[in-house]
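Researcher: Go.
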Amino acid sequence: MGSDANRLRRKWQNYSGNNALIAETNFFETFNEFFLNLEDDYIIVSKPKNFSKVYVGFPLDNQTISEIYNPEIEITKHGVFPDYAIKNLKTEKTIFIEVKRQDGWVEGKPRSAGRGNAHERSCKYFTPGLMSILRSEGNISKDYLPFWTVFIGDITRDPCRVREITMWYGENTRNFFFWRDQKDQSKLVNHFIDNIVEILD
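Model: Structure:
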C-alpha cells in the first residue's frame, strides 16, 4: 500500500470516528463529504458527461451503412453515462464508476427475485472499444481497469448473482465491491483506499 493510501486511511479513521452515520448514505454523499472535509486532492463528479457522444458518428464501412437504417434527423446524443467519476487532481487520473442497485434472491423471496440484469449491463465497460476510450480519457495505464462497479441492494447477497459477478471479474477483484450495508461507509471507503487509490496514483 502506497503512502497516499496510508495518508487517506489515517484521515478516514479520524473522520469516520467523529462522524459515524446511522442512516443509509449513498455513494456520492459518502465520497463528496469525505473529500471536502478532509481537503484531499480528490474530487467526485456526479453524472460525468465525458462519453455522452461516444457513439455519435462512430465510423462504419460503406457496406454496413448501406444495410442499416439511416435516419434523416441528426443524431446528436448517443453515448455511455457512468454514474460518477473520481479524479486525483495531482495525477490527473480519473476512474469511472457505476453504482448498480438490483433485487436479488434472499431470505423470504423466491429465486425469481434475482432475475434483473443491471449487473449484466454493467459489463459493457469490459468491451475492448469502451475499455480503450475510458482508459484514455481517465489517463489510466494498461495495468489497471479504468472503471469501478459498486453493487447495492439484495443482489449483494444473492447466491447466484454474487457468484456470477465474482467469476466475471476474475482477478480484477479491486474493480468491484458489494456494498451490503449502506449504513456502514467504512467498508466502501476502505475498499477505495486499498484498491482504487493505487489506480489513481
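Model: The chain has a mean pLDDT of 91.
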